[in-house]
Specification:
Elements (H helix, E strand, L loop, with lengths): L3 E4 L5 H12 L8 H5 L5 H9 L3 E5 L6 E8 L2 E9 L8 H15 L4 E7 L6 H6 L3 E2 L7 H12 L7 E7 L4
Parallel strand pairs: 4-5
Antiparallel strand pairs: 1-2, 2-3, 3-4, 5-7, 6-7
């Protein structure tokens, strides 16, 4: 199948919530039921990302099966969320979304992509390391990343080890 990456449309938003719920299910096998049970982003939040041009979707010629949301954090394009429906996993959709954001951000002169993720979940930090991200040490965390980590901790995500990661971008 052909993977297509495009800006999210308003009509995609309910589907993105379905993708998020499905993408959470594999966490159950790791004993991370709280992650699997976490509510998907509300439609109003998804609409804010879409309206500001910070929501990408991936499809294979039909409805969206993957999406990426991003914010600007301390001069980097920060990946807030990237999710792929399990039925479409392992076909390069997540990577294609990240590469699309990387190309767009580099074209605007942005220095890096950042994200926060679970350190030990195979499709989280180990995956991101394979596509060019590196774990940041405490001294490298920006104020914005510290605020994000504080919010994640308050949400209970620190029950499992988390890391901040960064991928430098080549400026075009």
């Amino acid at each position: 199948m052909t993977v297509r990456i495009r800006p999210a449309h308003r009509t995609d938003l309910p589907r993105l919530r379905d993708v998020e719920l499905a993408a959470g299910e594999p966490f159950r096998a790791l004993g991370m039921d709280a992650v699997a049970d976490d509510a998907p982003p509300p439609l109003a939040s998804l609409e804010e990302y879409r309206a500001s041009g910070r929501a990408l979707v991936g499809d294979e010629g039909g409805p969206a099966v993957a999406y990426l949301l991003w914010d600007e954090v301390d001069g980097a394009a920060h990946i807030e969320q990237v999710s792929v429906h399990p039925d479409a996993a392992r076909r390069g959709l997540g990577r294609a979304l990240i590469e699309s954001l990387a190309a767009e951000a580099a074209g605007r002169g942005v220095a890096a992509l950042t994200l926060t993720t679970f350190r030990d979940v195979p499709w989280n930090a180990p995956y991101y390391a394979r596509i060019g991200f590196r774990v940041l040490v405490e001294a490298e965390l920006t104020q914005g990343l510290r605020r994000i980590r504080d919010a994640e901790a308050a949400h209970g995500l620190d029950r499992w080890p988390r890391v901040c990661m960064r991928r430098e971008l080549s400026r075009l």
